Structures are given as structure tokens and as C-alpha cells.
Amino acid sequence: MNRSLRTILTLGALAAAGAAGFWAGQAGMNGSALPWHPSVEAPVAATGPVIYFRDPDGRPAYSAVPARTADGRAYVAVRASEDVSFEPRAGGQAGAPVAGGEPRRIVFYRNPMGLPDTSPVPKKDSMGMDYIPVYAGEDTDSGTVTVPSGRLQRTGVRSEPAETREIQRQVRVPGSVQLDERRISVVATRTDAFVQEVANVTTGDRVTRGQPLLKLYSPEIAAAGALYVTELASGAGTAGGARQRLENLGVPADTIAELERTRRVPLLFDWRAPRSGVVLERNAIDGMKTTAGAVLFRLADTSQVWVIADVPEYDMAAVRIGAAAVVRPRGLAGRTFEGRIALIYPQVARDTRTTRVRIELANPDGLLLPDMYAEVVIASGSGSTVVAVAESAVIDSGTRQVVIIDRGEGKFEPREVRTGARGGGYVEIREGLAADERVVVSANFLIDAESNLKAALRAMTSGTTP
């Protein structure tokens, strides 16, 4: 500021002071207040300790210690009673004194956005926002944070009560369709025989129970059949040794019944399908000789199949027998099949660190084919209810978990908890929280940052004298 401009401002100030003195004198002589000013009060002397020094010309320049301007003028001392704060305080409007009329001492100023930055004198942040004064004795509770209602709305803080619920999460693992081992049958003879003729059945065909698969000649079966017919003719009944021999040779029951009805031994015997299903393997050829136990056909009933899923070792604790599972075959886009876990295999694969689980599925239409890949979604959970909160409510540092308790009226308290299972957007709280306590689920990291900042500031200022 140049000398001429300063002279003009000084003269203006003196003129204003003179006018004020004239009208004050007139009011004193008349003994009444001026008609346009109800009263003229004597200026109140500043009280309290000096908390900072400001520029004498009103510029936004401050100092914690006595200082001078560039032209050598001293900064003006500002005492505690002269400081003004626009931040609402407990117990009244902005800037209101505490009970008893004594002004509160400002200890420092903190960043308005909760950043770990403080100042011993007033200042502005990079966005032009004023730093917020922190008074002596404010927030005596080391854990409680008070946030004005206006700021709550601006930051989007939202809270919900903790509630009891069952924690379920989905375990997604790969799987493949396999045949039900209990529904596979082998067609074979228990003695040497000759295949005379094979039915028009090939691998992949579907057959029904009792359908003829081949005609064969077996000297041993023919001899047992002749002995059985002889016993029937002699009236020995059906419980003789010849019938038992036929059964031991694996002759189908309907073939034995045919012997009983016709009382004659055929040259060739029909070998029939023991179950309905799909032909997985055909080894029989016209005119071939087969030995005892040789596999002629392999059949499988596909009306029910298994899905074998590989569950990682770290997910096994969440999977139990009877849990519901949804199977989505990759070859059947948009189709889903529902089943339940019937068995958890008692072994962990050494190479993949996974354990196989078996899901049984009905397959009446035969759409699920063996070795088909599928995505398996297993619903896991303990089946019991626990205290749980939304996952967003838990602030996890890796070594500790914290939730912010909403105590109402803008007061919040960080509390350490011990968590458990997670799933469905919720996390189990095993210790540190009771049902129906309200916790912050949105913008809680802002309150946590302010709580940590206040704790750090208390540690920094613990040695100061109020």
C-alpha cells in the first residue's frame, strides 16, 4: 500500500471516529438514545490469552508469534474472546461462549476435509475453505467424533442397525457331468460261449430293460437247461439243483421262465439288456467266441447323473452335505439344474489342493451328457443366525476390523470388532457389536479418518497447557 492511499484511509477512519464521538456526545447530553440507534454500548475489552497475530490491514495473513508487515508495522494481537468461528458448537450458536460466559481457548485449527493437517493460526485449504477451530476441552471422549448435521448430509453418511441373519455366500467352482456308478451294467457270460447273432444295437443307442442284445450258444448252459427240463418232467419241481445251476451261469430269469413253459431246451439263448439305458460299449461281434467274464456290452442308465465339482481347500469349511447347488452346463446355454451335495470325497488332491464334491441331478430328458463341463454354484452357510452388518460397514486394515457406531445427534464412535463368515453382502460380527446397534454403512471412512486424526492430534497436544 503506497503512502497516499494509506493517508486517505487514515483520514477516513478519523472522520468516522469523529462523527461517532459527536453523536455519542449528543446522546449523552440529551440523556436518551438516538432515534435511529436504540443504544450505544461501550466497546467490550478483549479478554483471554493471545492466540495469534493478524495483518493490520485485514489481509488473510496470520502468525503464531509477533510479526511485522513488509513496511515495518506490527501485526495486531487477537485474543481468545475476539476469535469468531462459524462452525456450530455444542450448546448454542456459532461462536457462543461456554456456560458461565467464559470464552473457550482455541488450541489449533484443523483441515475442514479431515486431512491430517493442522495449523496454530487460521488459514484456508487449497479450495479456499476455512480451517475449523478446535477448542480446549472439546471431544474429551477419545473415541467419539461429532459431525454437524449439515456436513453429514454433504458427505452422504448413512447408518443401519445390525441384525441377526443367516450368512450365506456362493462358492463358484468348475465341475463335470459323470455317470452314476450305481446305474452302470455290464453284459457278459459266466462261461465260454459262441455269439451267433448280435442285435442291431450300436454304441450310443438307447435300449430298454429285457430287450434282446444277442443270441449265443453255450454247451454248459445247454446242458444245465436240459437237466432242468428233465427235473421238471420228473416232477422234481422248480427248486432242484439244475435251476440253481442256470442261475449261477447268469441265465436271465425270463429265459428260465421260457424253459419252464415250453419244456424244451433251445439251441440258442437270447441274452437281454439287464436295464434301460445307453449303450456305452459294444464288443460283441457275430460269430465270435467269448470267454467267461468278457464284456460284450456296457450299459448306463442316464436318467440320473452326477456332477463332480472341485472345491478349493480354503472353501471346504463353508460346504456341507445337503447344501443346495445350481449347475449351469456350458453346452446348454441358459439351462440350469438344481440339486444337492450328496457326498464330499474324503481326500484333497495333492496337485490342485481341491476336494471333489458330488451333486446328484435328475436327467429325465438326457440333456446332461457324460464329461460335459459345467459351472457349479454352491450355497454355503452354517444354517444358524448370527449378528451381521453390511460388508461396507467394516473397515478392515488387515490387522484389525472397525465399525463406526452411530450414537445419534451427529455423534459417532469407532469400535473394534471380530468378524466371521462373509456372504451375500453381509459379514458376521462375532464380538464387539450387539443386534440393533446402528452402524455407519456409507462414507464411514471419512468418520474413521477424522477419528484417527483427532486421536493423533490429542497425542500431539497432550503436553500443552489449557
From TrEMBL:
Transport found in the keyword field? yes
Where is the CusB-like beta-barrel domain positioned along the sequence?
304-380
| Species in which this protein is naturally found | Phreatobacter oligotrophus
Q: Which UniProt keywords apply?
A: Ion transport, Signal, Transport
Which family is this protein grouped under?
Belongs to the membrane fusion protein (MFP) (TC 8.A.1) family.
Instruction: Tell me where in this chain the CzcB-like C-terminal circularly permuted SH3-like domain is found.
Output: 387-447
**What name appears for this protein in its UniProt entry?**
Cu(I)/Ag(I) efflux system membrane fusion protein
Q: Which NCBIfam families match?
A: RND_mfp (TIGR01730)
Annotated SUPFAM superfamilies: HlyD-like secretion proteins
Q: Which Pfam families match?
A: Beta-barrel_RND_2, BSH_CusB, CzcB_C
Name all CusB-like barrel-sandwich hybrid domain ranges: 184-300
Q: For this UniProt entry, what's an example GO CC term?
A: membrane
- Per UniProt, what is one GO molecular function of this protein? transition metal ion binding
Q: What is one process in the GO biological process aspect for this record?
A: plasma membrane copper ion transport
Tell me the InterPro entries matching this sequence: Beta-barrel_RND_2, BSH_CusB, CzcB_C, MFP_Cation_Efflux, RND_pump_MFP
